[in-house]
Amino acid sequence: xxxxxxxxxxxxxxxxxxxxxxxxxxxxxxxxxxxxxxxxxxxxxxxxxxxxxxxxxxxxxxxxxxxxxxxxxxxxxxxxxxxxxxxxxxxxxxxxxxxxxxxxxxxxxxxxxxxxxxxxxxxxxxxxxxxxxxxxxxxxxxxxxxxxxxxxxxxxxxxxxxxxxxxxxxxxxxxxxxxxxxxxxxxxxxxxxxxxxxxxxxxxxxxxxxxxxxxxxxxxxxxxxxxxxxxxxxxxxxxxxxxxxxxxxxxxxxxxxxxxxxxxxxxxxxxxxxxxxxxxxxxxxxxxxxxxxxxxxxxxxxxxxxxxxxxxxxxxxxxxxxxxxxxxxxxxxxxxxxxxxxxxxxxxxxxxxxxxxxxxxxxxxxxxxxxxxxxxxxxxxxxxxxxxxxxxxxxxxxxxxxxxxx
Length: 406
Prior knowledge:
single chain; conserved putative lor/sdh protein from methanococcus maripaludis s2 fold; Elongation Factor Tu (Ef-tu), domain 3; CATH 2.40.50.100; 4 domains; six-stranded antiparallel beta barrel; 4 helices
């Protein structure tokens, strides 16, 4: 029993003794080794082309796109008119709607013709009265001429006095003058009738040329006037029509680049509404004045294609193309995304044969659409990196994205 009790006492835990310290250094060593392996793997992958990029070739300016300048503007119509009447009157009927095709001389609206018809009836009555006076004056003039002829024969025979003959001659001449006056009055009445007819015709509003109605401005019952009478109760036009065959483009070109534009220069126009549709054309004229506020010069451009999709006030981008046979612009053309800025300088990253990149300073030129001209520092055929990431530096290795063009 005594030995057994001693053995049990020896198995008890002595809680008053201090605990032994735990050994943590193996875990710290393992973590450090793992970190070194990760850094080494990253460095290895970076050296093997871990940065994925897209590339594009540098192309000589003479090949591919021949655009030397881009500008934006709007489609405008050279023939556009807000049609009104020549007189003030109340609208009786409007015969147009937006989008309707009209021909030259087609009736667009009519005004109330009551007053004009009354004026014409009065002019007709005055003409009839003047013509009746002519008939009476002619009869009296014939009678006076016959009487003067008889008295002349009697005066030669001295059967009547000379005074009687002279009186008959004077009466004949007076009646002839009255006849001429009546004839002139009849002509004046006829002219007044023609004016009254024009007044009736002015109550009909016609299209001055063939085109498309783009706005309807008046309704039956409204007062229309060629001059604004003030307030909001008087219209100044029936509607607006546009000759779609007269559509052209007006663009604003910066003063610094207007020297590159010449008359009859070929262009390519792209409507904002149809970005995949390229419309050929040419420069009509350069307007000889500048906008001091925007520092631009307006250029008129003709479109070679006529299409219902082209409508006024559409936004358009115009690329001015170099003429055939002209010397090609200097430098090469690369996508604008290839030109980056490093330390305030324009640079590109050129891809080498070992998939490493070379950071190269370049002299960038104008931007034409999505492309950029490079005047110096790059030659045609070299491959450049698009959208280079900020961490990309000289000598780094890269790999191409799987869906990137080679």
